[in-house]
Amino acid sequence: MADQLHSDSDSTAHGCNGNAKKQQDATSIVERRQRDHLLGEMSSAYKSVISMVGENPERQGLKKTPERAAKAMLFFTKGYDETLDDVLNEAIFDEDHDEMVVVKDIEMFSICEHHMVPFIGKVSIGYLPNKRVLGISKLARIVEIYSRRMQVQERLTKQIAMAITKAVQPNGVGVVVEATHMCMVMRGVQKINAVTVTSTMLGCLRDDPKSREEFLSLIKK
Ligand SMILES: Nc1nc2c(ncn2[C@@H]2O[C@H](COP(=O)(O)OP(=O)(O)OP(=O)(O)O)[C@@H](O)[C@H]2O)c(=O)[nH]1
Ligand SMILES: [Zn+2]
C-alpha cells in the first residue's frame, strides 16, 4: 500500500506564470483493490482481540461484533480502493476563472498509522485555477480518498494538495488540516484540547505572500 501512496505524491503545482510543463496524470498507476474477500479473515482476527481483552466473543452482544468491526475497519480504510480518476469522474471544466476557489471546513476522519485510532478534523482547500476548475464536491471526495487510509496528518495534507495539482494543474494550491488525534486524547499524554494544524502550499500560494494571505484570510472563521 505504501507504493500506492507514493504514486500520488510526486508532482508539484505550476508556477505563477502558468508556463510550467504539463503534468502527467499518474492515477492509472494506482490499482483499484477490492477487499471484501478479507472480511472472514479480519473477523477472525477481531474475534481473537475480543478474547484477548478478556471478553467472551460468543456471548450474545458480541457474537456479530467481529464481523461488524471488520466491516467498520474496511470502511475506515476505503480510500485504498479509490483512485483519483474514479472520484473525479471527468468533472473538470474549462473555465476562464483565475480567482481563488476555496472550500473550507471539509470534515475529515482518518486513522493514525501509529496507534490505529482515529484522528478527526477538518480540511480547507484553496486553489488558483489555470483555465480549468474542478467540480467542487470533488475536493471533498479527494479528502476522502486520502483520509480513509492509515495516515499521518502531514502526509495526508500533502497528498490532497498533490491530487488537486494532478487534477487541474492550477497556478497554486493551499491545503490546511486541523485535527484532534485520539491517540493524544484517549491514551498517552491525554490532552483533549490539543489541535494539530498542518499545511501544504504549492505554486503561487507558496511563492506569493499575497495569494497565501488571501487564502489564509478566506479560511479564517
Ligand atoms: N507527526 C505526526 N505524529 C503523529 C501523528 N499521529 C500520531 N503521531 C505520533 O506518533 C508518535 C509515536 O511515538 P512512539 O513513542 O513510538 O509511540 P507512543 O509510545 O505510543 O507515544 P505516545 O503517544 O507519546 O505515548 C507519537 O508522538 C504520536 O503523537 C501524525 O499524524 N503526525
Ligand atoms: Zn496515534
From TrEMBL:
GO terms for cellular component: cytoplasm. SUPFAM superfamilies: Tetrahydrobiopterin biosynthesis enzymes-like. One of its GO terms (molecular function) is GTP binding. Its EC number is 3.5.4.16. Pathway: Cofactor biosynthesis; 7,8-dihydroneopterin triphosphate biosynthesis; 7,8-dihydroneopterin triphosphate from GTP: step 1/1. It catalyses: GTP + H2O = 7,8-dihydroneopterin 3'-triphosphate + formate + H(+). It comes from the Eukaryota. It is an enzyme of class 3 (hydrolase). Keywords: GTP-binding, Hydrolase, Nucleotide-binding, Tetrahydrobiopterin biosynthesis. GO terms for biological process: tetrahydrobiopterin biosynthetic process; tetrahydrofolate biosynthetic process. It holds the Pfam family GTP_cyclohydroI. The keyword Plastid does not apply. The keyword Nucleotide-binding applies. Belongs to the GTP cyclohydrolase I family. HAMAP family: FolE. This is GTP cyclohydrolase 1. It comes from Macrostomum lignano. The lineage of its organism: Eukaryota, Metazoa, Spiralia, Lophotrochozoa, Platyhelminthes.
